[in-house]
Amino acid sequence: MNAIFTKYRSNTLKIFVTTQTIARNTGYKSALSLDKLYPQSSLKLTTPTKPSTSQSPDFSGYIPIDQLNITYSRSSGPGGQNVNKVNTKVDVRFNIKSATWLSDKIKSKLLEKFGSKLTKEGDLIFRSDLTRSQQLNLADCLEKIRNSIRVSLFEKPELSPETQEKIRKRIQNANRERLALKRHHGAIKAEKRLTDHVEL
């Protein structure tokens, strides 16, 4: 009986070792492995090559990280003991006037839009502690910078004369209704005061 068990155990071990060797040699990877889903992905923070500005001459979305002043600090709020150990809060600042990656038009628009939020040195600061990850918070800050630039560059389209006339009429009608309602309430109050005076 012991001999049969020993032989069975030996054969099972050989099959297991052979299977592991074949798997190691063939290097099988699932179709859902990360390197197949994201072949160009990298967790390293790098500054990509500046894209072409032919489609968007004012701002392409490119932000050179090496020209930003990035600092990390402790995040506030819940997060367990890890929140007190890792600097996940991100502060990104840059000087608008000395930023070589911004055009003069963008600089003037940013100064006009966010001039009251600048520091004494002329730096514009963006903060993020949205997640407990440095890289995700840094990405959030960069997206905030992009959105701020796009908002400052946005110009309201000019309204046609017909549209302006419609808006004027709507405002005029709203004011008439408001004044009519105000006069109606005033008449009701005056009538109540008169009734109370007669009763006295």
From TrEMBL:
<dbReference type="InterPro" id="IPR052104">
    <property type="entry name" value="Mito_Release_Factor_mL62"/>
</dbReference>
<comment type="similarity">
    <text>Belongs to the prokaryotic/mitochondrial release factor family. Mitochondrion-specific ribosomal protein mL62 subfamily.</text>
</comment>
<dbReference type="GO" id="GO:0004045">
    <property type="term" value="F:peptidyl-tRNA hydrolase activity"/>
</dbReference>
<dbReference type="Pfam" id="PF00472">
    <property type="entry name" value="RF-1"/>
</dbReference>
<protein>
    <recommendedName>
        <fullName>Large ribosomal subunit protein mL62</fullName>
        <ecNumber>3.1.1.29</ecNumber>
    </recommendedName>
</protein>
<dbReference type="InterPro" id="IPR000352">
    <property type="entry name" value="Pep_chain_release_fac_I"/>
</dbReference>
<feature type="domain" description="Prokaryotic-type class I peptide chain release factors">
    <location>
        <begin position="74"/>
        <end position="90"/>
    </location>
</feature>
